[in-house]
Amino acid sequence: SQQGEEDPQALSIQEGENATMNCSYKTSINNLQWYRQNSGRGLVHLILIRSNEREKHSGRLRVTLDTSKKSSSLLITASRAADTASYFCAASSGGSYIPTFGRGTSLIVHP
Amino acid sequence: DAGVIQSPRHEVTEMGQEVTLRCKPISGHNSLFWYRQTMMRGLELLIYFNNNVPIDDSGMPEDRFSAKMPNASFSTLKIQPSEPRDSAVYFCASSLASQETQYFGPGTRLLVL
Fold it and tell me: Which of B45, B48, B106 sits opposite A42 (nearest CB)?
């Protein structure tokens, strides 16, 4: 099955800065999803981007998709301490493939 | 909608005991997933169901693990007998279709002594 691999594993920034996380995958996809997990909680869906889309926005979140490079990035602008969490990507392909998750990027935003 | 409901939220048991985790997916969702999360292994997909039928159980660690979905509104994950290495947080998630957005429950934190 398809798997997303996030990079970097950990990211530490100051409040107000932008945070960029990357995701790479191996084969052609139908869609790619980004999720957030706060400590001790379940994953929460952020954005789904389909293979025919190049960019999507949701509030302070911006996701890009480059199918030629088999990669996606998640940008959080003007970060806040409340953005501290782990961020996961999951890519799904055609057929019976379901999205599977990588190890995630641990983001710490210092107030 | 109340979202995905899991019970219990916490479980502490002794090695060798049977553990049953429960999940109620979001009404109308056709796919249900069971995951296990640990620091060492990250988030692992154990099994997923589509329309109550198990589709892929290749992630189930061994025969001690079993999962059922007797109807569209209920699923169980059973570990028998449990071992200390089974200690983890177990998540259930549901989605309208297998490749679409997954909605996660709060998880069950399992500790096997």
Answer: B106
Residues B19-52 have pLDDT tens digits of: 999 999 999 999 999 999 998 888 999 999 999 9
Are the Cβ atoms of B98 and A96 closer than 8 angstroms? yes
pLDDT tens digits along A17-60: 999 999 998 888 888 999 999 998 999 999 999 999 999 999 99
CA distance B112 to chain A (A): 18
C-beta atoms of A98 and B91 within 8 A: no
Give the closest-approach CA distance of A78 to chain B in angstroms: 26
The residues near A34 (Cβ < 8 Å, ≥ 6 apart) are A23, A45, A46, A47, A61, A63, A72, A74, A87, A88, A89
